[in-house]
From TrEMBL:
Coiled coil: none annotated. Pfam families: MOSC (PF03473). This is MOSC domain-containing protein YiiM. Residues 21-170 form the MOSC domain.
Length: 182
């Protein structure tokens, strides 16, 4: 992790839409997610998961993506801005995809998000820009799935998060568990 890891952009939307509105500040609520966001709740809020089992715990309260992904996508011919892929928090200087499960991300002076897993991107990404889904979900040399569309977490401690806040990474004790799709 870079010592200058920061929150570069914030996003929320009260409606279930693909892209989220940019905000200068969001409020994280412990055990629920982003105040006023359609995906906030103790149980699943993503519509496909609600249809499958509305009583599942919400392991996807906060969606985080790294600005470096947008920069990489630009080298591959895609123009994607923060918030357009539905994330709540865009970071700079953190290898989000390389973090182990259970990592605590301190966002600014108050809020803490516990990392639960990798975002499992849906077909809506392909509708957003043709060919984009293939860039965000691929295969490595062994044929294993690679997910690049950010990570998901739950709010461990609430608080305000502002664009420009620092991001501090606290790794879990013991053996580290690689992130899986959630």
């Amino acid at each position: 992790m870079d010592s200058t890891a920061t929150v570069s952009a914030l996003h929320a939307d009260a409606t279930h839409r693909f892209s989220k509105n940019t905000a200068a500040r969001i409020e994280l609520v412990a055990g629920l997610g982003v105040a006023g966001d359609a995906h906030s709740g103790a149980t699943v809020q993503h519509l496909s998961r609600v249809r499958a089992d509305p009583s599942q715990p919400n392991l996807r309260q906060v969606h985080l993506m790294h600005q470096e992904l947008f920069d990489w996508l630009a080298t591959r011919g895609f123009t994607v801005a923060p918030g357009q892929l539905g994330e709540n928090v865009t970071t700079t200087g953190v290898d989000l995809l390389g973090l182990p499960r259970g990592t605590m991300l301190h966002l600014g002076p108050e809020a803490v998000v516990e990392v639960t897993g990798l975002r499992n991107p849906c077909a809506q990404i392909e509708n957003f820009q043709k060919g984009l889904l293939k860039e965000l979900v691929g295969r490595d040399a062994n044929g294993d799935t690679i997910r690049r569309a950010g990570i998901m977490g739950v709010v461990h401690r609430g608080g305000a998060v502002r664009s420009g806040d620092t991001v501090t990474v606290v790794l879990p004790d013991g053996p580290h568990e690689a992130l899986q799709g959630v």
